[in-house]
Every structure is written in structure tokens, then in C-alpha cells.
Fold this protein.
Amino acid sequence: MAAVNEERMQATEQLQRDLAVTTETIEHPNGLCMVTASAKGEFKALHLHPALLQQGARAVGEVVTETVRLATNAAVQTSFNKMALALGDGMAIDVESIVGDSPFRTTWNPVVPGKSAAPEATPERRPRTPFVDDPDEDAFFENPFGRR
Amino acid sequence: MDDDVERAARKVRDVEQAVSQHVARSGPITGLASSPDGAVTVVATPGGPPQQIAVSAAALRMGPQGLAAEIMRIAEKAQRNASSRLHQTLERVVDPRELTELGFAREQDEDFGWQR
């Protein structure tokens, strides 16, 4: 029994060391920014594509903020996975009941399309299709909003 | 084992409730840091990714590598600041040594801005 407890303690300590150095690298869906972050949201590396800077200061801020959030979520998920491997699914579920759901469970699709930093272009104006008067149309069913 | 988990969960809930009540009074805790010339400003949360990163138009002249390095430097400063603010806010309801062990150390030198 003592040997089992000792083994478990060592496994837990090793897990703590592993979790402390867990990082994940994520590239933004637009391919212009890549972030390596820890599960605590710390930047470990940041690469900006020159083309991102050409999109303006606001776009840079938004894209980096979004990418570091995705990288942090990925690192948290990796930590959950490592914990489940080391301690078993049962313990991982117990931990989730205490600290809350893992990112995978809470966000099935973590990439949220952000608002465009540049204003959207006005849609092209097209002439309306001329209304063809139908002499057979029943006045009772006439719907001027339905005509195209 | 189940009893241990249940006890731990109960303790976490109790601390969570005390912390929630405390934070409800003090407001959300964030840390703010800026470059001296205002090129990069970061609003950080304790133990999470930066909430907001703002870059000035002039900062774009730093180039991709220079700007990336500056964002990382300011983000780290903002997060340290947020952690320090969390420590100060919660040290009345949570053992300060435990807060430090969790990575929320209290900064001695607070020459940067902060906000709650």
C-alpha cells in the first residue's frame, strides 16, 4: 500500500512538472499570426507576418488577442489530456467537476470569426427586376412585398 | 477517494463563494501595462490570456519582429500586474502563501499602471 501511495505521489509530482511546461502553438485562421502560449495565458513566442501589419494597427491587436486566446485554450486542453492519461479518465472528470469543463467540452468550435477591422464594402447596387403586371392576379392575394 | 474529491470540491466551492463575493465588491481584476511611448497597451487578467492588446499606428514601424517582442514584453508586465492585484485583493480571504504558490505573486515594485 505504501509503495502504491509513493508511486502515486511521484506520478502526481511528475504531472505537475509536465503541466508547468505545457505550451501549445496555434496559427490564426488567417495565417498571419502564430502564438505559443502556456495554459496560464503567458506568451512563449509570437510571430507576426509582415502582411498583418499592412492591415493596420487595430487588426494587429485583434488578431494577436484572438490567437493567444486560442493557443491558451489549446494548452489548457493539452493539460487536461495529460492529466487524464496520468491519473485516468475518472480523475480527470473529477477535476473537471471542480475546476470547470475543459475547453474542448465548452467550445466545440473555438474559432470565432471576429469582426473585420476594415469597414465592409457597400454591396453593389443592382437594378430591381421590373415588375410585370399580371392581369390574372387575384387582388385578394396581391402582396407588393413579394414581388421581385 | 470519492470522499476526498467531494471534500476538495466542497472546499473549492467555499473558497470560490468567498472570492466571488469579494470580487463582486471590488470589481473585475485586470492589469494594465503600456510601452513608454504608448506603442503597445495590454489589458491582462490573472492566470489567463490577455483580454485586450492595442497597438498604435506608430508601432507598425517597429516591423514584425520588433513589434512581436514589444507585445510579449508588455503582455508579461500586464499579467504580473494583474496577478499582483489579485494577490492584494484576495489575501484577506485566501492564504497569501497559497496565492504565491499558485503563481499570483505580489509585486513589490508597482511602477506600472493597474486597474480593477
Notes: Chain A has one domain: 2-118. Chain A touches chain B through 27 residues (CB under 8 Å). Residues 109-114, 116-121 of chain A have pLDDT under 50 and may be disordered. The longest helix of chain A spans residues 57-87.
